[in-house]
Amino acid sequence: MKVLIICFSSFSKILFCTPVIRALKTELDSEVHIITKSKHLSLLNGNPYLDKIHEMKGTKQTLRNLKAEHFDLVIDLQNNLKAKRIKLHLNKKAYSVKKLNFKQWLFVNFKINLLPKSHVVDRFLDVIKPLGTSSDNLGLDFFIPERDEVDKDWLPETHAQGYAAVVLSARYKTRQLPTDRLIELCDRINKPIILIGGHEDVNTANEIEAFFKHGSAHEEKEIEELNKKAVIFNACGKFNFNQLASLIKSANWVFTHDNDMMHVAAAFKKQIYSIWGSTSPAFGEYPYRTKFVIFENNKLSCRPCSKRGFSKCPKGHFKCMNDLTFDFYLPD
Asked: Which DSSP state fits 305?
């Protein structure tokens, strides 16, 4: 059976597709194709369960290319106008994910939560259940090319025996801790720390790094007396995405906002401390099939204020992050 999967909305959704890809290949022995955006190609290039990746280019040419493949079945994990156009053009039997836009709107605007108590991945897997598949409970897949694996020799000696990864990135500001609270979190972790992020996180990372930088012997003695062990290695803007994923893979613990790297950490079965601001894990995008702790402020009537987030707090107080409590214990 030759199957086309449609999914091109976001990085996280591409990762959420991977158990579906694996099930179609291993359980049904299908020839598995996927169509996605060009910016997502690198996430799938190393996936051994995929036979072919189609890039979403000009629609007419894309449709002609797909038609020539003669698929037997379409699995639509997108279910929007573009996906419907593809399905109409191919005219093959299709199974589509159920959209929850109205229920999400109710939750954001009226705090009425009618959303299913299940992860988006499980909703995706439900789409292919009529084919006779079942979840293998192996979680997400993320494959790092060998050239992007970060050797531990690249890291400072202080981090050789283990470290916590703190992921600064967030698509929207209301999903990210303010810098002073990130400093507080790093101090609370009190372990060697690697700051994970892109070029957009460099300024914040530099502030955090500067706060924990020690100089004089007198400072070092005071730090030792206070049992302060938060030694910072700033990786923001210095590594590509796959290399940052490799640093996540080698971490003992991962502290992260609601972002793409949270799902990479889940793919590597990391212990995740997941930080939520304006969004909510109730939307079904919490860490999948790994150990995790959620930090969120459930005492606010204004939360969630968005499915995605904003550039600043609509209420002006940002209590979802400013009043967040960090309650955790990391073993020595």
From this structure: -
